[in-house]
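User: quick one, sequence for these C-alpha cells?
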C-alpha cells in the first residue's frame, strides 16, 4: 500500500510545543510518510522545542528577521512553501492554531489544491481585532481547512455555526496536554539558578507572562502596578515574571518592577523550565492562550490579564478567571486566591476541559480514516 505524505508546518515556540507530540505520533504510523517544515517565524525559542523533542525538520524556511512585519512574514511563508510543495507534493499539510505561519501555510496549500488539516481549530473571541492578528488567522485558516481538529465541543460548535460540515470536525482534546506528559517531572531541577533558589514550598509563588499586542501601553503599565501592590500587601508572595524580549514590553517591566524585593524578572524560559515552573508555582497570571490550557492540567488557578478569551471552557469550568488589566480588579482577584484557601481550592480542583493526553493519537487516527488507510472508528474526546 502506498503511504500518504503528511507535511507538518509550524514556526513559533507555542506551535512547536503543541505540534511536537503530533509529529512523534505521525512517525509511528506505517501508512504515513511524515515530513516537517518550520518557517522559523521565531528562531531561538523554536529551536529549543525542536531539541527537546528531538525533531529534525526536513525543511527550514528560516524567515525570521529583526522587526519583521505581518506582511513580510506572510510573503516569505507563501513563497517558501510554494517551493516546498512543488518538490514534496504532500497529500495533506497540518497547521496549528492562529499564527501568521498557520494562515499563510493554509493559503499556500489552497493555491496548490493540497488538503489542509487545522489543529486546534474553532477557537473564537468573535472580535477580529482581539487578539490581533490571531483571531482572523484562525478564522481564515478555518475557511481553508478540509479537516478541523477541534480541542473541545465548544470549538466544534463555533465551527458548526460558521457552516462547517460536522463530518469534517473531530473533537480531539488539545495536544499541549500530550506535550506536558513528556516535560513535567516531580523531581525537576531547574537549569536557571535563580529558580532553584526560590522557596516554592513556603512561599506563594505567582508565575506571570504578559506581552500580547492588545496590552501594549496602558495594559502593561497597569499590570505592573497591580503586581507591585500584590507584593506589597502579601509578605508570603513572590513573583516570577517571564518577560518577553520585545522592548515595548521589556522596557516598561524593567522600569516598574526591576530591583524590587520578591520580584524575579527572567527572560522567557524553554519549554521544560516553563512547564515545571508552572507545576511548582502557586498560581498563574497571564495573557497567554496556551497557559490557560496548561495550568489547569496541573491544578493551578489562572487569572487571565485580558477582557476576552477564545478559551471559554476553562472559565466555565472554574479553573480560569478573566480579570482584564484594571489594577484594582487584578489585585482584588489575586488577593482572594492568596488569602482565601476555599477560593483557591475551588479553582485548583476544577476539572481541566482541555485534554487527556491522547489528542495526537485521535488526530492521526482521523487522518488515516480520512484517506482510507484505516477503518478504525474515531473516538471523540469527552470531559469525564
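Assistant:
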Amino acid at each position: 500500500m502506498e503511504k500518504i505524505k503528511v507535511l507538518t508546518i509550524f514556526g513559533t515556540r507555542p506551535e512547536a510545543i503543541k505540534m511536537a507530540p503530533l509529529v512523534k505520533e505521525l512517525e509511528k504510523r506505517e501508512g504515513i510518510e511524515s515530513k516537517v517544515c518550520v518557517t522559523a517565524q521565531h528562531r531561538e525559542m523554536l529551536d529549543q522545542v525542536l531539541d527537546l523533542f528531538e525533531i529534525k525538520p526536513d525543511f527550514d524556511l528560516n524567515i525570521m528577521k529583526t522587526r519583521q512585519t505581518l506582511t513580510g512574514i506572510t510573503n516569505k511563508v507563501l513563497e517558501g512553501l510554494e517551493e516546498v510543495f512543488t518538490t514534496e507534493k504532500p497529500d495533506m499539510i497540518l497547521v496549528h492554531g492562529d499564527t501568521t505561519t498557520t494562515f499563510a501555510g493554509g493559503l499556500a496549500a489552497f493555491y496548490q489544491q493540497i488538503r489542509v488539516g487545522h489543529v486546534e481549530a474553532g477557537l473564537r473571541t468573535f472580535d477580529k481585532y482581539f487578539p490581533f492578528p490571531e483571531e482572523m488567522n484562525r478564522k481564515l485558516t478555518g475557511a481553508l481547512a478540509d479537516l478541523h481538529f477541534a480541542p473541545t465541543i465548544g470549538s466544534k460548535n463555533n465551527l458548526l455555526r460558521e457552516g462547517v460540515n460536522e463530518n469534517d470536525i473531530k473533537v480531539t482534546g488539545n495536544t499541549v496536554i500530550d506535550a506536558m506528559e513528556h516535560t513535567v517531572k516531580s523531581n525537576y531541577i531547574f537549569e536557571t539558578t535563580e529558580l532553584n533558589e526560590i522557596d516554592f514550598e513556603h512561599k506563594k509563588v505567582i508565575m506571570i507572562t504578559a506581552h500580547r499586542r492588545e496590552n501594549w501601553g496602558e495594559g502593561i503599565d497597569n499590570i505592573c502596578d497591580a503586581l507591585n501592590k500584590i507584593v506589597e500587601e502579601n509578605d508570603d508572595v513572590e513573583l516570577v515574571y517571564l518577560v518577553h524580549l520585545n522592548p515595548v514590553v521589556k522596557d516598561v517591566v524593567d522600569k516598574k518592577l526591576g530591583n524590587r524585593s520578591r520580584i524575579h524578572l527572567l527572560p522567557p524560559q524553554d519549554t521544560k523550565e516553563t512547564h515545571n515552573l508552572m507545576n511548582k508555582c502557586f498560581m498563574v497570571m497571564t495573557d497567554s492562550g496556551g497557559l490557560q490550557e496548561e495550568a489547569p492540567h496541573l491544578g493551578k488557578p489562572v487569572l487571565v490579564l485580558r477582557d476576552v478569551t477564545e478559551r471559554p471552557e476553562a472559565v466555565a469550568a472554574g479553573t480560569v478567571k478573566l480579570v482584564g488589566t484594571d489594577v484594582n480588579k487584578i489585585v482584588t482577584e489575586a488577593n482572594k486566591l492568596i488569602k482565601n484557601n476555599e477560593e483557591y481550592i475551588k479553582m485548583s480542583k476544577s476539572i481541566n476541559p482541555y485534554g487527556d493526553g491522547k489528542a495526537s493519537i485521535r488526530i492521526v487516527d482521523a487522518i488515516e480514516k480520512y484517506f482510507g488507510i484505516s477503518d478504525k472508528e474515531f473516538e471523540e474526546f469527552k470531559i469525564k
